[in-house]
Amino acid sequence: MDAPFRGSGDDIDPADQWVLNPRTGEYELRQPDPATERPAVPGPRSAPEPGPAPEPAVPGRRRTTGRGQRKAKKKSTGKRILLWTGGTLAFVLVVGAGAAYLYLKHLDDNITTTDTAGATSDSFSKDKAFSILVIGTDKRTGKGDAGYGDANSLGHADTNILLHVSKDRSNATALSIPRDLVTDIPDCPTRQQDGSLKTVPGTRNIRFNESLGQLGRDPGCTVRTVKALGGGLEVDHFMMADFNAVKTLTTAVGGVEVCLDHAVKDTKSHLDLPAGPSKVEGEQALAFVRTRHSWANQSDLDRIKVQQQFLGSLFRKMKSDDTLTSPTRLMGLAETATKALTVDKGIGHITTLKDVALELKKVPPKNITFLTLPVKDNPADGAFHKTVIVDPVPAAQIFTMIKDDASFTEVKKKQKAKEAAKLKGPRSAAADVRVDLYNAGAPGGSAQTTLAWLQTEKGVAKASQLGNAGADQKRTTLQYTPAQAAQARELADLMGLPASALKPGRSETNAQGLPAMVLRLGADFKGAGVPLTGPAKAPAVPKTTADQVKCAS
Known about the structure:
Blueprint: E1 18-20, E2 27-29, E3 64-65, E4 69-70, H1 77-80, H2 90-99, E5 112-114, E6 130-137, E7 157-165, E8 172-177, E9 182-185, E10 188-191, E11 197-200, E12 203-207, H3 219-229, E13 237-241, H4 244-252, E14 256-260, E15 264-265, E16 272-273, E17 276-280, H5 283-290, H6 300-318, H7 321-324, H8 327-340, E18 341-344, H9 350-361, E19 368-372, E20 375-377, E21 388-390, H10 392-403, H11 411-420, E22 434-439, H12 446-457, E23 462-468, E24 477-480, H13 485-495, E25 502-504, E26 508-509, E27 515-521, E28 543-545
Parallel strand pairs: 5-18, 6-13, 8-19, 22-23, 22-27, 24-25
Antiparallel strand pairs: 1-2, 3-4, 6-7, 7-8, 9-12, 10-11, 13-18, 14-17, 15-16, 19-28, 20-21, 24-27, 26-27
């Protein structure tokens, strides 16, 4: 691994030691030219020199023991994990790794890996969509960081971003999950130091951030929690990064442009910036992503919005010419990225991370969407709004779009196609639609959730929910009489039911003694407001894209 540096003069750029092999498309070490290689010149025997000059240190030199296996870390599992309070930069770190991939073959030993006991995939495929959970913790770590985080914390999932990249690489979604979200944490098998498995029992109605660190939970437990939260959503891999990476990475790229709509001088985070555009790096960059008391509601939700703006700016910086054409900057970026990363074993090698990075780089910034999981205040808090709970309908729509590999930036084009495919004929007003709902194989609670959505969101006040249908069915159906055809078309459009779901037949008498259509939610039902044929449009939630320049407020 240190071959390119041996015998090199100080005036030779390390990047010049790598050349592109046109047959493989990969960068390889430049082979010595026999014509220019200095021949060995025999000479008279003499006393040996005082000693050879020490060989130059080589970044990322692989340490081996036995048959070349990576030397085991001496620290415990918890201490091996590189913890990052901000939690927002890991997914862009991999972009930096991709930009500098010609250097990364030196740096494999920098990466720390964690066995998730089956929570993540064992491999990475360049031919499929993939999702990576980025986890940041609130534990203090690193020189100069005593002013951040909780000194007594074991390290919780303070900031979390689910990054999904579509199969065709046309778009990506970065979904932030609030740390104060109250949810259920499932049972979690964790790998122990001796190789055995220990299952940490699950906990109901607890903050999301306790999915890591609490009771010995590892990153695999956070992954499992996200899967359960998303109703079986696939999460292929995870990444963690030391929050020192915020400082070193922003310095490595020469600073990141940010913008404030008002001057900020925060005594808690030590952020001190004027109104308007500024460039931050090092301590000020870390303060920027940590600040929450200077924004509207002084909450973690406000901080998430600012972090998303920061990520978009950092992503643009990493793809800019002044970053990609600077060998020195690329080298520093690669060193920073690999030293900061802790990943699962499925992507725990430089070559694999290079593949992940290059796939992500294919996505245009205008099609990388940042949004936050829809939540609402937790009623259990009373007047003191400390925690949040999932807002079920828009959250289900978002998770379904991710599962369906749907783009949040190309939905207008798909919406036009949906409009063209609507059922033809007159429609009733939503207030005139009468329908009885039954659960006929959909997930538990679907009928009640759909009833609430129809009544509060769509104005279908004459809907009723009558429990289970008694017999399950694979497909959702809407049964109606000829006189109810206009109502059926309106309800089909509101819910995104295909024409095949409409079944002419008998109606039934509702609680008011009036004829009502019968809607049976089958096993194909995806959630209230989620069309069976795929989302016609993105839910009405705040979002931004990586190409947008905004000022934090």
